[in-house]
Amino acid sequence: MKKISFLFLLLFFSTYVCADEAVADGDTLTTHTHKNDIFHRIGNTFTKYFRDFNKTDTTYIEPQHYNYALMLQNTNTYEMYRVTSKSGQSFLFAPEPTYRVGPYFGWRWIFLGYTIDVSHIGDKNNKQEWDISLYSNLVTVDLYYRKTGDDYKIRDVDMPGRPVNTRALEGVPFNGMNVGITGIDIYYIANHKKFSYPAAFSQSTVQRRSCGSALYGIGYTRHSIDLDFDRLQEVVSKNLPEAVEHPDVAKLDSGLMFNKVRYTNFSASGGYAYNWVFAHNWLFSGSLSLAVGYKRATGDLRKDELTILRDFSFKNVVLDATSRVGIVWNDTKWFAGMSAILHSYNYRKQQFSTNNFFGSLNFYIGFNFNRKRGYVRNTKK
Questions:
Q1: Cα 65 to Cα 318: distance, rounded to the nearest angstrom
Q2: Cα separation of 218 and 188, whole Å?
Q3: Spatial contact of 167 and 42, defined as CB atoms under 8 Å apart
Q4: DSSP secondary structure, 58-88, as one string
Q5: d(Cα 235, Cα 232) in Å, to the nearest integer?
């Protein structure tokens, strides 16, 4: 079955308020006179504040020159999931990576496109996923939804204290696990007048001087984990050679018998990002944000609770992380590059803990067209 996934990138209006201001020099602008009533005065004050707050330093950030863009992108997604019992038994599950390719069309702050999953053409796979990344100089927003399919494989096993060779389990298919995650992360870029996230990850501006910025964020995610313990026990017993004569050596820890887990996560994060302009039209960008998250199992929520603070426990506080890296060449007309984003989430209870990693690696090439009026005029001088 052909799988098609959609990616929608919406570049906030603030980025283009700054860009349009930057090209106003030399243009003949047509203005309209409005009544000077209280509503217009309030609106003008708000607009002026919004523009002043979002102005960028054009010696560091060169605005977009064009109205439209076309791009071809290859997206590769990866994920891993580790489950560990209190006694130390652990299983690392991961499906095969997915490879998608497709075209994108951009108009100002909207970027629309689709990618075809070429790695599962003709396969019956119930995997669902979409990611939305919103990049502006002021804020960055990540929205994501993932529901894994039934194509996990066992990648690594640790059974301490057992005289078994667990390599026999590596690469064995396991269809008894399903994981889902839905979330949103919002980051504020402190040094947004000189540092540009869009230059590295949406190609809508060009970073002309190296610069960094602190990042501050908040996030919310909802997770679900389904693990068929009986199916896992069956797979382990069947594939461990030592289990033929000694079945007890393949017995799994009872701490892995959780079957279903549902939990939510509220987090506050801080981090740093840096754009390195190592050559003309070239940019390397990297960032890391660490989040302090408070996780609550859905089954722990009682109907008479009004807030999650009533039974706050430090045992539910964990550390998560999000990192990005990108390299891009952009001469304002043509652009090409690579970008990657990785999310890491952790969860622990008394009898078991989980670690979830997922991310995407993108390769792209494209061009901008329909030059804005201000830049057309400047090229004739």
A1: 44
A2: 9
A3: no
A4: TTTEEPP-EEEEEEEEEEEEEEEEEEEETTS
A5: 5
| pLDDT on residue 17 | 41
φ and ψ of 140, to 5 deg: -130, 135
List Cβ neighbours of 94 (8 Å cut-off, separation of 6 or more): 78, 79, 80, 81, 152, 153, 155
Share in percent of the chain as helix, strand, coil (round to 5): 20, 50, 30
Mean pLDDT in residue range 77-105 = 90
Q: Is the Cβ–Cβ distance between 141 and 186 less than 8 Å?
A: yes
Q: Specify the 3-state DSSP secondary structure of 286.
A: strand
Please give the biggest Cα pair distance in the chain.
91
Mean per-residue pLDDT of the chain: 80
- Are 293 and 317 in contact by the 8 Å Cβ rule? The answer is yes
Question: Would you state the pLDDT for residue 275?
Answer: 97
| Strand-pair partners of 156 | 92
Closest CA to 260 of 218, 221, 299: 299
3-state secondary structure of 139: strand
Among candidate residues 252, 136, 132, the one with its CA nearest the CA of residue 187: 136
**HSE (side-chain half, CA atoms, 13 Å) at 71:** 32
> Residue 267: how many CA atoms within 13 Å on its side-chain side?
31
Give the confidence band of 159 by pLDDT, cuts at 50, 70, 90: confident
Per-residue b or e along 17-36, where b marks 16 or more CB atoms closer than 10 Å to that residue's CB: bbbbbbbeeeeeeeeeeeee
pLDDT score for 199: 92
d(CA 238, CA 211): 56
CB atoms within 10 A of CB 122: 8
> What pLDDT, in 10s, does the model give residues 113-158?
777 888 767 666 667 777 777 888 888 888 888 887 778 899 999 9
pTM of this prediction?
A: 0.80
Residues 369, 70 contacting (CB under 8 angstroms): yes
Please write the tens of the pLDDT for every residue from 237-274: 888 887 777 778 788 888 787 778 888 899 999 999 99
Reported as a single tens digit per residue, the pLDDT across 24-51 is 443 434 444 455 667 667 667 666 655 6
